[in-house]
Structures are given as structure tokens and as C-alpha cells.
Amino acid sequence: MMYKVRDLKLSLPDMAHKPLIGATPRIEILKGLSFDVPKGAVLGIVGGSGSGKSTLGRAMLRLLAPTGGSICFDGTDITHLSEDQLRGMRQRFQMIFQDPMSSLNPRRRVGGIIAAPLQVQRLDGIPTRIDEALDMVGLPREFAQRYPHELSGGQRQRVGIARAIALRPDFILADEIVSGLDVSSQAQVLNLLGKLVRDLGLTLAFISHDLSVIRRLCDRVLVLHLGEIVEEGATVSLFEAPQAPYTRELLSAIPLPDPHQTWD
Amino acid sequence: MRDLRGDVKRTLGLRLWLSGGWLTILALAALCAPLLAPKDPLMQDLFLGRMPPFWMDGAEPGYLLGTDSLGRDVLSRILYGARLALIVALVAGTLTCFVGATLGLIAGYYRGWPDRIISRFVDIWMAFPPVLFAILLIAVMGTGLLSIIIAIVIIDWTRFARVIRAEAMTQGAMDYVASAQVSGQTRFSTMLTEILPNVLPTIVVLLTLEMGIAVIVEAILSFVNLSISTDSPTWGGMISEGRTSVHQAWWVLVFPLITLFLTVLSFSQLGEGLKDRFDPVLR
Amino acid sequence: MNGYLSIRNLTVRLKGGGTILRDVSLNVAAGQVHGLMGESGAGKSMIGKAVLGTLPRALDITSGQIWLDGVDLQTLPPAERRNRIGALAALIPQDPLTALNPSRRIGPQITRRLVDILGWKRQDAAKRALELLNEVHIPDAPRVMRSYPHELSGGMRQRILIASAFAAEPKLIIADEPTTALDVTVQKQILHLISEMQARHDTALLFVTHDLGVMSKVCDTLSVLYAGKVVEEANMPRFFMRPIHPYSAALLAATPTYTDPTSSLTPVPQTVVDQVEREVMEHDLRTAS
Question: Model's pTM, two decimal places?
């Protein structure tokens, strides 16, 4: 198993209801999640806003500290590792962010952005690795000299992908990476990601609110609602015969590009 | 798709050139004051008191901007005054910036207890009225260049700390900071390589503003006779002296005032111009 | 055909620079829903802004006419134009978070236009606001009238903005991506509500969206925009069965659907992009000469 998550709980302080004196109340965002991610799987994590899907992703990468339960990454319990202990492992699990405009430092060139994690992990042959990464995501090597704002949305998102795969990780978390893109670049990014997963033998967790995209890419799906898993299963069976009422509601709410769809 | 930002015409860096030009002239004047000044700024000549500037009737040749009530050359005094003004601007501005920005950066990025301590400190500090505070400090420390600089740093570091803290907090919430963490970068190095470059434009703007403010504070202190010794020429001191004889000899007041105004304005405009230059999106 | 809103050869330029809209013509008949489809940067929102007179300062209408209820808005003096637009048209904005003033209660915000512009009495306006909140199916309307925006969910806020748009019985509504910020389940409710309100009040609706799925649920006719140029105008069933322009067809092929996972997802091919880009360029050359 790449990931074994057991009874994962996470709560954050609720600043909106902070009393004048005394401890800040906490909101429970993840209410005890248990699931596995097998090696080589492409797991879709779907849910509406407030479902906790992004929090779950950030907890899996230990950008947030869980308040309960455990997370095992490839046999190692990473639930309570300190940032220093995690540092050596960080190369193995990477993340692609939702908004490439905010996840790419605007003051760095593309080459520098891809190189930064490589330098942190003290890898050698950095220029070659940058070129390879750009090749893999289908961007010209000259783009290493450009700034993020000089690229289109789709190209920026490819830089985000290049940065993640340049480290040759085992696992990648993709958080809503196509929700900000136009359909034309969305299709390109999805096809690219599918190809990279196959070619590099990656394990992928793909967070999205869009079931159409999930069906395209993933072989397992996890449906989150208000911090709980309401349904989990193989993509085909989940789409053909959804069990949970919330999953059915989600599916029936999707507007298909078809004027004859019954949609009441 | 298409990006139209490149089509937006931007005003050329005119203000950058004007403000930079004035400050360069001033810096040169300050450096070469002994060569440029037509007279000794301290030389008194009671027979030549309150001589008008060169284009007016009764002007004395060699005293381009006239003389004050003690017969001292106004132009020479402005030139020498620039030395003190610029030293205070550069040294006090940079020190204030360094102290305030460092604390603000730490508070805004690390949050938690460093933030709580620094922010409380800033809140308490800002409750003191700044000019009174400065006068009090000088009164305690005694007059002199060092005292002025220390007073400015002590009063004004909060300005940097507050703004930079807010800016660092905004930048800290961006995903490229999370991305640095994902790649295993330490907190400290993330602060230097990811946060600092993005708050640098704000720091530059504040720094130049602060230099202008330092010039004003120095002038205010001279005005109330708390700057360096009374006989060395300062703009604030000149304005203070000129005030008493403004009806008989307006030039004693007006010329240093114009110089002061242009200098402070140039510092703030220089900051704005540099900020645009630094922004890779606009460049 | 002359619609309630009829835009003819509208060209909008950036002051001293690029072209945002190129010769756009379209009609929205009374009581009909016309969709504006385009990817980001296609200028679809700018059409709505041009009609409502809220174009950013850097943009100018350089040629063309906007006919609203039989009058060319461009020929009116500015004050009269504003009054006319204010009385006849309204906007449902994209982002329910920023469209409501966070420091004012909901009630006055719904009827602000009634009181400030049309000179209604406060009591009448409050009564109307209650009616409207009932119409958009908000339970416990009196309580909601007294609450502040942050106390309500995104879907509720969008309902309030819809109520506010219909407050002065406008004959034209412009909806600018009204559901982009919402969850699918809420989106469905809001789209149903917009259709319901549009039918009940018999308004013309210009519906701006980038989502072909949403488009197919709401609109009667549509225009597809690329780089500020209308590349195809069609009515709804025909467009989805037989799109004429290759760019339209490519957009349809690039849209993922969960019902048909076997068909491969085709990004818009470079040849198609080249073709529309060429058409845009030819158009620019023609108008320049």
C-alpha cells in the first residue's frame, strides 16, 4: 500500500467564533477517515466545498498535522513526524496545486521554480532534470527562461506538474488542478497527467469537485461529504450503481452538454 | 488564451528619472559642498545681513540666494545642510527598515508566539506620540547625529513591522510557500527565498518613504533646536531662523523649505517608481 | 430579427491598444434566453458590461450600436442612458461573496435600487423585498432580511442577488457566470431558479458562461466567442447535434462527460486554433483597410 489512512481526524481553530477570553473553539474538518491507496492506483477524491477534500490532501502530505488517527506512507507512520524528520522523505510525495498563479513564485523563472525542490533535496544534474521535466510535460525547453505570468493557464499548470515530477516521486497529490482552466487546456492537462501516471508508474490522488473529470482519469473514487467518507469504490461501479444518496445527488446535478438530458 | 496585459501602455519612468535626478544632484552637492559652496556657511558678516537673492535689487554679487540676518550665505548653508539631511536619511532610513522589516517578516511568517510578542510590542509602541517621544529621547541622550539616528529608528521601526507583517502573512498563505514545504525546504530558508523577494518591493517603497520621513524628523528636531550643535547648518535650523524674519527676508525661509519639500517628495516618488521596476509582471 | 436587446457590429478597443470585441452582433428576443459561450479572454463578460455601461475605464466602444427596447443607447446623453439602463436592465453577478456589501443588512441591499433610483417609499420597498425573497424560495424571509451577508451560505446569497436583480421588474437580465463559484448541487438549484424567474417575469436573459453543460440547460440560443469575435450563432438543439464551426465542435469534444468515459477526450486541435486565429486576423485586416 502507498497510503494507509486510519481514523484520520483533523480540527482547526475557528477564528470566527473566538471568544474574547479563553481558548478558541475548534471545527472538526475531518471526522475519522479510513481508506487505502494501493501502489499504482489513481484515486479520485470528490466532494463539494466544505467537504474537507483539500484538508485531507494537505494532511496526507503532512502540510497539516492530524489531531487523531494515523497516516502510513509506504509502511512508515508519518502521522507525528516532525518537519525535520519528514524532510528526507518529502521527495517521495509531491503535490500539484490548484491555482498555478499562486503556487508558482511570480518572481522566479520557470527554470528556477522547477530547480528549487531539486536544490533542496541536493540532487545532481539539475539542468538535465529541468530539461527532462519540461520535455515530459510537453513544454519547449526555452520556457525555463520565462516568468509564470508570461504563460497561459494551461502552460502554468504544466510547470506545476513538471516541478512535481522532476523529483521522481512515488506519489503525487493533485488538488483541483484543472478547475481553473478552460476546457481546451483542461483536456490537455488531463491527458498529460494520465500519460505520466502510466509512463512513470506513479500513484496519484486526484482531488476534484467535478465527477466528469474523475471518471476520465481515476480507477477508484472516494466521495467526501462534510468530513466523512460517504462512499468508496471502483470508478465503474460507483458511476453505474451509486449507493450513497449523496453520490446520487451529485451525479444527477451535473449538467451534461446535451439539451435532451432530463435534469429536474 | 490571449493576454492583453502587454497592450496596456504604461507611463514611462518619468517620475523615477525626475526624483532620481534630484536626489543625485543633492547627493553630489552634499559630497562636493566644500568645492561648490561659494562661501563658508558659518562665516558671518553683519554688514551683509539680509541681502536678497541675485535677481532682486540690492543683491550682493557672490551671494546667489541672498544672506540671512547674520550675513551667512543661504546657498552655502543649504549645500552643507544637505550633508546632514542625506546622512540621516540613508543611515536612519536603512537601520529603521532593517529592524522593522526583520521583525515584521518573522512575525508575519512564523506567526505563533513570535508574532504575539512582536505585535504586542508594536501596539504598545504606537501608543506614544512620535514627535514628543523623539524630543524626549534626544533630551535624555543629548543632541548629536547619533542621537537623531537612534531616535528615528526607535520611533519608526513599527511602521515597517506592521506593514511587512501583513504582507508576509498574505504571501505566507500562497501555495508557492506550501510548495516549498512540500519540497522539504526549511522554514527559515523558505522565508528568505520565497517570502522575502515578494515583500521586497513593499520594503523598497517603505524604505524610500522612511528616508523622506527621516529628513523631516531631522528638520523638526533642528527646528526645536534639538539637532546637532546650533551653528552647523541644517535645513530645519535655517527654516526656524528664517521664520523670525520672514517679512524682511523671505528667502531665508523659502529656499531651504523648497529644498526640503523637493527632497521628501523625491524620496517617495523614487520608491513608487522602483516598485514598478521591480515587478516582473509589469516589467 | 430585432430583439429586445440587439447588438450590432459592436467593436470595443483598449485605449491605445488591442481589440477586445470584434464586430459583435447578437439578438436577445423578449422572454428568450441567449447564451454567450467562450473561454477565458474571449471577451464574453465585456459584452454584458458594454450593455450595462460598466466597461472598465481603459476600454472604449469604438463603433457599433446597442439597441435596448428599440432605442440605440449610444445616441443617448450619458445621464439619460444610465437612467434607461437602470430602469430596463439588471445584472446577476458572478461572485455572491463580493457582490453584497458585508456591512449592510440584506433587506436594504435588495431594494437599494428601488429606493435610491426609482424613488420608492421605504415601507413599500420592504414589502417588495419580502415578496421577492418568497419568490426565490428563501425560508424565513423576515429573518433573512435582517441578517448580514456573512451569516448566509453561498447559495442563499446568490438567491438574494437574483431577487435583487428582479426587484425593479427589468425586461433584460444579464447573468455573468452566476453559478461558477457554487457547488454542483447548489448550481442545479440556482439554474432552475433563474429559469423559473425568467419565465415568470417574461424577461430577456443574456447568460454568460464557459460551461457547455450549463448552457444546454438554460439557453434557447447561443453565440460562441473566440478572441472577441462571434464564430457561431445557433439555436440550442442544433448546436449540440451539429455544431457548424470547427471551434465549436472542438469545444464539445474537449468537454468531459461522466456518461461517456470511453470516448477519448480531445483537446482543441492546433489546426482549429490556427483557423480561428486566422479568421480573427483576416477580420482585423479587413476592418483596418
Answer: 0.83
